[in-house]
Design a protein that fits this description.
Elements: E1 25-28, E2 32-36, H1 41-51, E3 56-61, E4 65-70, H2 78-85, E5 98-105, H3 113-120, H4 124-132, E6 136-141, E7 148-151, E8 166-169, E9 173-177, E10 180-183, E11 188-190, E12 193-197, E13 218-223
Parallel strand pairs: 5-13
Antiparallel strand pairs: 1-2, 2-4, 3-4, 5-12, 6-7, 6-13, 8-11, 9-10, 9-12
């Protein structure tokens, strides 16, 4: 009769059927730990990045959560658990690099601007003024390499994604999707509402830092 052999658990990952180390954490694959962070996502992200914990290979912010990618064979350290469980009052606010990005609003560059202004009950110039009057914060990157999901869009400018996505959106297109503002780094299909376009290069794989905008960075749009 063949006897079962116990396997070691070098990463500190719980065995199948056992709970994660914290109710707000769950394992994703073999080396990923998803941590629910809510509105403190950027603060937690900045804190973990500054600690440079040896067991962490990468920290990826998302909408209300972080994905921690562990190095192969690395266990969860007490320092990491303490950092993730720290009260929000102990987490410092984030203030990244400020970028000023010139935008050509409306026309061929922003085909959805007129409809969005009508939806908001304002003229196009007032819509542009409102959009460019605030400072945005990059919450996370996704969809395309370097695509920034930015918070800070005035509530009156929120708009749902298009019912029918476009087959091709031009690179540099400044867009609105729900409560987020974004910029398409490269041409491709997309369902966000396009209000303008910038000549800024959002992603260049030849650079040491390929993405122009990083989580925590701030953006101000300047009408061209």
């Amino acid at each position: 009769m063949q006897r079962s052999v116990k396997k070691s658990n070098p990463r500190g990952k719980p065995k199948s059927g056992q709970p994660s180390p914290h109710p707000a954490w769950r394992w994703v694959g073999e080396r990923g730990l998803r941590v629910a962070t809510g509105d403190a996502t950027l603060a937690r992200y900045a804190e973990l990045a500054s600690r440079k914990l040896p067991e962490i290979e990468d920290v990826i912010p998302a909408d209300g959560s972080l994905l921690l990618v562990f190095r192969q064979g690395a266990p969860i350290s007490a320092e990491l658990c303490a950092a993730l469980a720290a009260p929000l009052a102990e987490v410092l606010p984030v203030s990244g690099t400020l970028h000023e990005i010139a935008v050509e609003y409306g026309g061929k560059a922003g085909p959805d601007l007129r409809a969005l202004a009508t939806r908001a009950g304002v003229g196009m110039s007032d819509f542009v003024s409102s959009h460019a009057a605030v400072e945005y914060t990059v919450a996370f990157l996704g969809f395309q390499p370097g695509f920034p999901y930015m918070r800070g869009l005035p509530a009156g400018l929120h708009a749902p994604r298009r019912a029918s996505p476009r087959a091709r959106v031009a690179a540099g297109s400044v867009a609105i999707g729900g409560a987020y503002c974004g910029i398409y780094p490269s041409a491709g299909p997309g369902g966000w509402q396009i209000i303008g376009r910038t000549a800024a290069v959002l992603f260049d794989p030849a650079h040491d830092a390929p993405a122009l905008l990083l989580p925590g960075d701030r953006v101000r749009f300047v009408p061209a």
